[in-house]
C-alpha cells in the first residue's frame, strides 16, 4: 500500500492542475506554476527510489519466509 502511494502521489500532484495554476508566490523570479512542477522532479525521484527499496525489502522477506521460493 505504501509503495502504491509513493508511485501515485506524483501523478495526483501533477494532474491536479488547479492546485498550482497560479503565478504567486514566485521563487527567484520563477512563477509558482513552473517551480512547483520542477520541485516534483526530485520528489518523484525520491518517492520512486523509496518504493523500489520497500519492494526489494518485501521480496527479501518473502524469499526468507518461503525458504527461498518466491511466489
TrEMBL record:
Indicate the transmembrane segments per the record.
Answer: 37-55
Entry keywords, A to Z: Membrane, Transmembrane, Transmembrane helix
- Tell me the Pfam families matching this sequence: DUF3311
Q: Out of the domains of life, which is the source? A: Bacteria
Identification of the protein by name: DUF3311 domain-containing protein
To which species is this protein native?
Streptomyces rameus
